[in-house]
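Make up an example, fold above all:
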Amino acid sequence: LLWQKENTIDKAYSDESELHDDFINRSAKRAHFINTECWDDVTGYYYDVNIVTKSRTKSIHAGGIFPLALGIAQPDKAYRALYFMRSQLLRVGGIVTSCIHSGQQWDAPNGWAPLQWMAFQAAKNYDDSPFAIEIASRWCTLNEKVYSDTGKMLEKYNVENIDLLSGGGEYPVQDGFGWTNGVYLSLKEELDILGY
């Protein structure tokens, strides 16, 4: 996300050479860092880096799809990361936030609309339309099922057991979230475009 902001600022300063060059350099350095330090060649996926210990975290989470969703990933890395995401994070209802079952809201079994959108974009950006369709259709089907059962769109969903509602965290599941509605509508539109 910082890389994306640096690119946005770079474009805003395109007429001011010094600032334009500064933000081009910043984003290039960040992209290089992401593709070297965050990338794990053994697993074929992107991980967070602890800047104090200079080591990659071991937890598998959906945040590793952002380099693909934003187009930072080099194609050979992207194809491996998509395979990894499919094998490790794809569940019956969409992409799970992490593989950790901690009881917290940003962990399994929960899935969140913004992460579904980023996963969809990741697959689409690297020409994996079948996987993009799979992510979108699983998520939309889950949203429709929960809406049919409860009459509500929710902030997060249980993507591992679609017969149970999501949970965990410091507050009850919220009803009618804007990002859920927006991602659902956008994914439905994308599925129509892709002919699904």
Q: What stands out?
A: The beta strands are 39-40, 45-46, 49-50, 55-56, 90-91, 94-95, 110-112, 156-158. DSSP finds seven helices and eight strands in the chain. The CA atoms of residues 66 and 118 lie 7 Å apart. The chain has a mean pLDDT of 92.
